[in-house]
Amino acid sequence: MLPEPYRLHHRADFSRTVRRGQRIGRRDLVVHALRHEYDGASDPVRAAAMIRVGGPRFGLIVSKAVGPAVTRHRVARRLRHMCAQIVADLPAETDVVIRALPGAAAADSAELLRQLRAALRKLDLMRVPSDTAPRGVTGPGGRR
């Protein structure tokens, strides 16, 4: 389950993320991400709001094209669970909206998680886990 502070609720937040953020499509998902970079001097109200949130926020869009209500809710639950798994790997000032495409209903959870992580890495929002780093590389371009 995704805790309350990590959810997007307002239509304005969804719209802002989809319209102003970066977008990347995968086979079963489209990921929209907007990274807020506020300094307290220029807009103290927004800076305080970001501090209050405490972490990245996620929103889901699962339309009727995905399937009937039971299927849509199952896809949404799976996506919320995946968001809870990656919340620690994203910058705190990030809003992410995930749009499920019709293929998400048939895809397994591991494949959806792989697509989500790949999309966020491509947008330079997610750190590459150290266990997937190539072995033998000592630095940028250097080899043992």
A few lines on this structure:
The protein has 144 residues and is of the alpha+beta class. Helices cover 36% and strands 20% of the residues. The longest helix is centred in the middle third of the chain and has 18 residues, at 69-86.
- Give the fraction of residues assigned to helices: 25-40%
Strand content: 15-25%
Largest beta-sheet characterization: 4 strands, mixed
Q: Poorly predicted ranges (pLDDT <50, ≥5 residues)?
A: 130-144
> What structural class is derived from the secondary structure elements?
alpha+beta
The overall average pLDDT, rounded, is 82
User: Number of DSSP helices?
Assistant: 4
Which sequence of SSEs, written as H and E, runs from N to C?
HEEHEHEHEE
For the biggest β-sheet, the strand order reads 1-2-4-3
Note the overall shape.
globular
**End-to-end distance, in Å?**
43 Å
Number of strands: 6
Radius of gyration from CA coordinates: 17 Å
